[in-house]
Design goal:
Length: 397
Amino acid sequence: MITASEALQIVLENAPRLEAVEAPLLESLGGVLAAPVAADIDLPPFDKSAMDGYAVRAADVARLPADLRIAEEVPAGTDPARAVAEGTCAKIMTGAPVPPGADLVVPVEDTQPLLEGRVRILRASPDRTNICPRGEDVEKGAVVLAAGHVIRPPEIGLLASVGRERVLIHRRPRVAVLATGQELVPISAAPGPGRIRNSNSWSLLAACRRAGAEADDLGVARDVREDLAAKIADGLRRDILLVSGGVSMGEWDLVPRVLEEMGAAIRFATVRMKPGKPTVFATRGAGLVFGLPGNPVSTLVTFRLFVWPAIRKMMGHPDAAPAPLEATLAAAVTTKDDRTWFMPARLRREGQGWIAAPVRTHGSADLVGFSRADFLAVIEPGSHAAGARVKVLPLEI
């Protein structure tokens, strides 16, 4: 039986980076750039005022107070009509182009209005020109975003600033989600004896969207080979197929056998971890298949550990599996066997470090308890006293 770290390595070795596609600017949000982006203009494109105030010549305010004639007003979005001459100034708004001749903007609060179109400069500091020079942020032709950069709202604004209406990103993986089990009923139904609502499909669809993938719901397959095989065949047409349930060693756990019959290569079928021991990973061509345990918490834990990094790699993230944080245990913890326990925990800041407090749950079917956790504490086999250092992985992905 392999460790969770070994299993993750196998997943990442088999997850292909997807090809580049063009996406409309807003639809690129959350994507990863497949090529560098260069500025098509200087930013800012002109010397601009950083303040509402008066554009002046520093020589005219060397001695204060100084009374100057207001030669013009320059709102944002307009061109100055004239240069600032000796003894004059221009009233200017934030973001407006600085007129030629001016080398200092005096904030309006450091001035006093006078009659007949004049202003008195009360304070002025040559060390703070309050002018943003042309090309200060970036010069035309310079790279503003490198390949591999994740596109967030700030990057959307930057891409708009350099005229990019469409962006080259790595394609988002197409994921199919399939639940299995005779006991599952739709969420709109009242479960009868021995039945439960299908929560796994919904949590996995949500997790895929959160990770940036495109996900389709294949519904529920009965524990009958023909039904399962038909739905798996449909799912194998995507980049990733997620199957929840049907991966243990029971008579009705048909998923691994059906996958092998369809030409998939099983890379591993058990992992030394809790929860999530019966986790299957298979490949067929460039496609990935994850057989996740049917218990709802196990489903989400194994998604976080294996599927989420695979999606990140396929989308072009330079770091598919970011390193865990470190925290101090708030209470003593002991494992019951030789498996690594991914324990639900809440993290809080204390001084310069993090404290991980175990979250009480009733096992791998307890979504109520799991919903109170925001991290997974990685508890290696054995006993760990309060104050011990452990690795922690964020659940918010």
